[in-house]
Write a structure and sequence with these properties.
Strand content: under 5%
Distance between the termini: 88 Å
Order of helices and strands: HHH
Region (Disordered): 1-30
Structural class: mainly alpha
Largest sheet: none
Helix content: over 70%
Shape: rod-shaped
Number of domains: 1
């Protein structure tokens, strides 16, 4: 596809598309802080879930104990 002034518009479009895409080096450039930040967040979540599991275990144990104490109906 050629324009009226003799320039190839399909070549311009291809060049513009290539320039807008990140280079392979940029695509695979690894953020070195990212994994460390995620690890800290994951550790915090793990501790939070551990506390929640402990709370649920205690609550279930209390419920079981209260059911065992109550007289049968």
């Amino acid at each position: 596809m050629s324009s009226t002034n003799g320039h190839d518009t399909s070549m311009r479009a291809a060049l513009a598309a290539a320039e807008s895409r990140p280079s392979p080096a940029d695509r695979f450039n690894i953020d070195r802080e990212g994994p460390a930040k995620r690890a800290v967040k994951l550790r915090a979540l793990q501790q939070r879930f551990q506390k929640l599991n402990e709370y649920c275990d205690e609550a279930a144990a209390e419920i079981r104990a209260s059911l065992e104490r109550s007289p049968p109906r």
